[in-house]
Amino acid sequence: MYTHRAQPAPIPVDLPLVVLTVALDGTMTAIIDGTEYEPGPGEAAWTRASFPQIIDHASHDRTRTIRVEVHEVDGSTFTDVIAARPGRPAPEPDVPDPVVESRAARRRRQSEPVLVEVTGDGFIPG
User: Fold this and answer.
1) Cα separations in angstroms, 79 against 31, 34, 68, 102
2) How far is the C-alpha of 37 from the C-alpha of 116, rounded, in Å?
3) Mean of per-residue pLDDT scores for the chain
4) Hey, where are the domains in the chain?
5) Region entry Disordered: which residue ranges (predicted)?
6) For the stretch 70-81, what's the b/e string if a residue is b when 16 or more beta carbons lie within 10 angstroms of its beta carbon?
7) Looking at residue 77, what is its pLDDT?
8) Looking at the whole model, is its pTM more than 0.85?
9) If I label 3, which of 12, 103, 122, 125 is the partner at 20 to 30 A Cα–Cα?
């Protein structure tokens, strides 16, 4: 029998393409969907160490899946698809901890006699 399961998050139809081209001096150019992505003002040129920063920007902090092509100086090309991280559940509201009763308090509470009175027709106590 088929059971209905929760639908996964929708996957975008388009995959942003990130093209990284490495130069002889170790710097890189980054092109995201045909538009050059440059370092911020006052920052040095992109290098291999900048790879995570470029990927985070292109994938909107890993919320979108992207395709990455790296073109090396020797002519080799590496291609990879970097999947988005699964969504995080919303944080649960703070619930106060239940009052924990000490063992001695539980014993005192349990050892106190409780009077139970039973009455009825035809009952002979004893």
Assistant:
1) 14, 16, 6, 61
2) 82
3) 82
4) 17-72
5) 83-126
6) bbeeeeeeeeee
7) 95
8) no
9) 12
